[in-house]
């Protein structure tokens, strides 16, 4: 099953927003946006990939383009909320790596995130 397009409600370490998946091309390039509450949209174009075999998504949240220490690198895995309904509501869950510009420290760089289809 391909990554479902549309809006996903995301919670990234307590910060909430919408992960909008516009589409995935044949090479696995994802287009869309990540919009955290109170922030402008982050474009996923050219910084997001979908691996359909492993059901894995990777993308970069670029908070301030001129400061790489604010970038966050997300990895997540897709699964249905109920295994008996593989085409029903779904989840993405995983972790993101943060750097000094977003409050991370050498002792803590990994944070959890989860997204649910907005159905």
Number of helices: 0
Radius of gyration: 14 Å
**Mean of pLDDT:** 93
Unreliable residue runs: none
Q: What count of structural domains?
A: 1
- Distance between the amino and carboxyl termini: 18 Å
Order of helices and strands: EEEEEEEEE
Major sheet, described briefly?
A: 9 strands, antiparallel
Record field, number of beta strands: 9
As laid out across the biggest beta sheet, the strand order is 4-3-2-1-9-8-7-6-5
CATH class membership: Mainly Beta
The fraction of residues in strands falls at: over 45%
Q: What structural class results from the helix and strand content?
A: mainly beta
CATH topology: Lipocalin
Binned, the helix content reads: under 10%
* CATH structural architecture: Beta Barrel
Principal-axes geometry comes out as globular
CATH homologous superfamily designation: Avidin-like
Layout of secondary structure:
Blueprint: E1 6-12, E2 15-24, E3 30-36, E4 42-43, E5 48-51, E6 56-61, E7 72-80, E8 90-97, E9 110-117
Antiparallel strand pairs: 1-2, 1-9, 2-3, 3-4, 5-6, 6-7, 7-8, 8-9
